[in-house]
Design a protein that fits this description.
- The complex is a heterodimer.
- By secondary structure, chain A is α+β, with helices and mostly antiparallel strands.
- Chain A has a domain of 143 residues: Alpha-Beta Complex (Flavocytochrome C3, Chain A, domain 1).
- Chain A is built from 18 helices and 19 strands.
- Chain A is globular, with a radius of gyration of 24 Å.
- Chain B is of the alpha+beta class.
- In chain B, helix 3 runs antiparallel to helix 5 and helix 5 packs antiparallel against helix 6.
- Chain B is elongated, with a radius of gyration of 20 Å.
- Classes of the chains: A alpha+beta, B alpha+beta.
- At the A-B interface, helix 3, helix 5, helix 6, helix 12 and helix 13 of A face helix 1, helix 2 and helix 3 of B.
């Protein structure tokens, strides 16, 4: 396997312009003869399909939910970054680029990130034109707020529902193309395998989730926008149906998988409360604009709180430890997510945690309410406060919120080049499904930016460059030995799983896998913990294949079968995450190896030996994967220690 | 806490459905309604009693609009301003009997158990519930000012999650609140004005065609909407409808 990132020549700020000037195009009459498959209807998938359909290509788009509007992008709360500099506070493309590279701990590709920053402004223009009701000030101009890892206010937002509004904008654009006939929608349909013919991605095998029947679709190119794999941890902020399988089957068919160990743990989630819990709810990072994070200064206070003898309001101001403001005076409560998460874990591990479990810290709005009034705080965060109250039955206007870190986003994903093409020609990956722009840690409000940048402004160009010579191959039909083989393979996998007929449910195994991953390959990892994880995952996987029980039939609506199929892939992926975390003998961004930290507990990178993208090649179910390295060359940016103090 | 659950079971769209009764025990009052159903399903599967109950759900934080159960005669149950996934068991009493049904509306046929087909909503949006802004070639985001109160009202309407509770709550199975919310959201913004008349005509015609009933102004939709979308949006829809009718006559 050869990794060619295909970064265009020229100075960084001219690369994208040069690329577009030199790329191949498809003339309008030929566009309608070319078919494209898009998997997923989140921000990346919906925006890509809408834009490609508008250009005149024919697109088949697939989603597992009953409607494209339900993709998990909808749950993003806080906002979307763009280098508009509307606030006149010193923002620029260059600044957004630098913040993103630094936020990613110098593990992202310069050229991709620069392009992301470059098109960020266009995204806001596009969304406003679609009717996205972004927050505005009294003059009618767009408002901004600040997010972690930035010293400017460049985040555009629609209350606490920015993801929803952006997705509904893209869904509207997609709906328009569906009505025009350029896009065909397949809802409640799950991708089960990728079909590769003569080395090129030519189609997919899907399962109709209503009937359980397998179906085939063929196209000149396949675009994967299926999101991340955070649900491997069972408890995460992801939706219940979010899964890594569509990306994983591509990996199994030959697409390299990059940086799987880069997993983002979000600092502000509602803490775990019971075994039956199905997911964790995020409280937007935007809350850190006005909320102050603290734990008691004295251990005895923390202990009294855990016993229920004291409440947060009983702790005097001088007995509170605002540990982020103490440790990071320059960025305070707005340090990046990985830093804030580790700091919370450090305090809780040291015995200062609150809540009945001791695995929580306070996020306090009392100062903000005094400074701004309750009314203003309600206008800014009303729906988040309501959400918190509905879940916990506590009123955050009166008592501080309790929060704890949780799995949120996966920076790793399918390896892609500058064109967002994977190592399989004709297979592209966008949004969270690829690895490209966030390095080892993603900054807040950058996921929405990347998904829409890829879909609206990158893929419509780079896909054309690939498709230009595909006009000569004619219509691709969903037949031939490769389609037969792929469909048979899926049929066999399903039959094998159904045949096990053991004694435990799928969720039993998923919860166990999640606990292993969180405990031994979560916020802090060591050589020993990873070895333990490897052993335990192996044992659990063997047990799963002997003892899982799936009721019902393969050819009917069967959610247990869906979960089992996805979990089977998670076992392989878990092994790869552990292998990747083991080989990366350094700490960077979301990957924290306890062996590699500074005296004051900060991450310690090893640029000498690890400034590369780890791209893994699948070798078969029981074989260790092969590591390929893409060296990262920083020509433009000056590499420094990541310091938020 | 323990409960007696009466749940609508139906094999598929063509099969005849029925209520089945299940008992469940050891439920924490901190747990959500769907987590209670998870535990029921875990029990049904692990003890090989029955096939698990199918119900739609995804984000479990009240924003995707996927979940929606008719619980003791109310869409999304007995708490205000929440989806089913945000309803917690502390709103019930120990020992309660709970009746759980799918949305009942001609335009939302049952697929299996508690799962219904809501693609009719997508078809209404496809009929015109968007602004035709092709990617690229749009003006700078700050070129057109939008008064704050208009943007706020548009956001209030745009908060709709498309769950279908409004239709399920309505004795006529009317979709006026859903359509009104989208029409209002876009008509309130200057960007949505050029297509406003066309949009309302196409969306309302599609709504009628798909078998949703008429609005008789009882506002059960508003009372049950998990996002508390206001009935003023129905008034705006009617105003837009009349506007397009008069406008078209003049042309």
């Amino acid at each position: 396997m050869k990794l060619d990132s295909k970064i265009p020549e020229g100075p960084l700020s001219e690369k994208w312009t040069n690329y577009k000037a030199a790329q191949k195009l498809v003339n309008p009459a030929n566009k309608r003869k070319l078919d494209i498959i898009v998997v997923g209807t989140g921000l990346a998938g919906a925006s890509a399909a809408a834009s490609l359909g508008a250009l005149g290509f024919h697109v088949d788009i697939f989603c597992i939910q009953d409607s494209p509007r339900r993709a998990h992008s909808i749950a993003a709360q806080g906002g979307i970054n763009a280098a508009k500099n509307y606030q006149n506070d010193g923002d620029s493309v260059e600044r957004l680029f630098k913040d993103t590279i630094k936020g990613g701990d110098y593990r992202a590709r310069e050229a991709n990130v620069y392009r992301l920053a470059e098109v960020s402004g266009n995204i806001i223009d596009q969304c406003v034109a679609q009717g996205v009701p972004f927050a505005r000030d009294y003059s009618g101009l767009l408002d901004n707020r600040s997010f972690g890892g930035a010293q400017v206010s460049r985040t555009f937002y629609a209350r606490g529902q920015t993801g929803q509004q952006l997705l509904l904008g893209a869904y509207g654009a997609l709906s328009r193309e569906i009505a025009r006939g350029t896009v065909t929608l397949h809802e409640r349909t799950e991708m089960m395998d990728l079909v590769v013919v003569d080395g090129r991605a030519r189609g997919i095998i899907v399962r109709n989730l209503v009937t359980g029947e397998l179906e085939r679709y063929a196209a000149h190119a396949v675009v994967l926008c299926s999101g991340g794999y955070g649900n491997i941890y069972y408890l995460s902020t992801n939706a219940m149906n979010s899964n890594g399988s569509a990306a994983w089957v591509c990996h199994r068919r030959g697409a390299a998988f990059a940086n799987p160990c880069y997993v983002q743990i979000h600092p502000t989630c509602i803490p775990v409360h019971g075994d039956y819990q199905s997911k964790l709810t995020l409280m937007s990072e935007s809350l850190r604009n006005d909320g102050r994070i603290w734990v008691p200064k004295k251990k005895e206070d923390a202990e009294a709180i855990r016993r229920g003898e004291k409440g947060p309001l009983d702790i005097a101001e001088e007995d509170r430890d605002y540990y982020l403001e103490r440790r990071y005076p320059a960025f305070g409560n707005l340090v990046p997510r990985d830093v804030a998460s580790r700091a919370a874990k450090e305090r809780c591990d040291a015995g200062y945690g609150v809540g009945s479990t001791g695995l929580a810290v306070y996020l306090d709005f009392a100062d903000a309410i005094r400074r701004l009034s309750k009314n203003v705080v309600e206008q800014k965060y009303g729906n988040l406060f309501q959400m918190y109250q509905k879940i916990t039955d506590h009123d955050p206007y009166e008592v501080p919120m309790m929060i704890y870190p949780a799995i949120h986003y996966t920076m790793g994903g399918l390896w892609v080049d500058y064109e967002l093409q994977t190592t399989i020609p004709g297979l592209f990956a966008a949004g969270e499904a690829n690895f490209s722009d966030h390095g080892a840690n993603r900054l807040g409000a950058s996921a929405l930016m990347q998904g829409l940048a890829d879909g609206y402004f990158v893929l419509p160009y780079t896909l054309q460059n690939y498709l230009a010579d595909q006009i000569y191959v004619g219509k691709i039909k969903a037949e031939g030995p490769e389609f037969d083989e792929a469909e048979q393979a899926v049929r066999k996998r399903i039959a094998d799983l159904m045949a096990i007929g053991g004694g435990h449910t799928v969720d039993h195994y998923h919860k166990a896998l999640g606990r292993i991953m969180w405990e031994y390959c979560g916020m802090a990892r060591s050589k020993e913990s990873l070895a333990t994880a490897k052993q335990k995952v192996g044992e659990l996987e063997a047990e799963f294949y002997k003892d899982v029980y799936i009721p019902g039939a393969a050819v009917e609506m069967n959610p247990e079968l869906e979960k089992a199929y996805r979990l089977a892939d998670y076992f392989e992926l878990a092994r790869l995450i552990i292998a990747d975390a083991t080989q990366r003998e350094e700490s960077c961004g979301g990957h924290f190896r306890v062996e590699h930290q500074t005296e004051d507990g900060e991450t310690q990178r090893d640029d000498q030996n690890f400034m590369f993208v780890a791209a893994w090649e699948y070798q078969g179910h029981d074989q260790p994967e092969v590591l390929h390295k893409e060296e990262l060359n920083y020509e433009h940016i000056q590499i420094v220690k990541r310091n938020y103090k | 806490m323990k409960f007696t659950l009466h749940i609508w079971r139906q094999e598929n769209a063509r099969a005849k459905g029925r209520f089945e009764t299940y008992k469940i025990d050891n439920i924490s009052d901190e747990c959500s309604f769907l987590e209670m159903l998870d535990q029921l399903n875990e029990h049904l599967v692990a003890d090989k009693i029955a096939h698990p109950v199918c119900f739609d759900n995804d984000c479990r934080e009240g924003i995707c609009g996927m979940c929606g159960l008719y619980i003791n005669g109310r869409p999304h149950g007995n708490d205000d301003g929440v989806t089913t996934c945000q309803l917690h068991m502390r709103h019930f009493h120990d020992g309660d009997e709970i009746w759980i049904e799918p949305w009942r509306a001609k335009a939302f046929p049952v697929i299996k158990d508690l799962v219904v087909d809501r693609t009719a909503f997508d078809k209404i949006i496809q009929a015109g519930g968007y602004i035709s802004a092709t990617t690229g070639g749009v003006p700078d985001a700050n070129n057109i000012l939008v008064p704050k109160h208009k943007a706020d009202q548009a956001m209030d309407a745009a908060a709709c999650i498309g769950c279908g509770a409004c239709v399920a709550a309505c004795k006529n199975a009317s979709a006026m609140l859903f359509v009104g919310a989208k029409v209002s959201h876009l008509a309130l913004l200057p960007q949505g004005k050029p297509e406003a008349q066309d949009r309302v005509r196409k969306m309302v015609c599609k709504m009628d065609e798909l078998g949703f009933g008429a609005c008789t102004n009882t506002y059960a939709c508003e009372a049950e909407c998990p996002k508390q979308i206001k009935r003023q949006n129905i008034a705006r829809l009617n105003r837009q409808w009349i506007g397009q009718a008069l406008g078209r006559d003049r042309n």
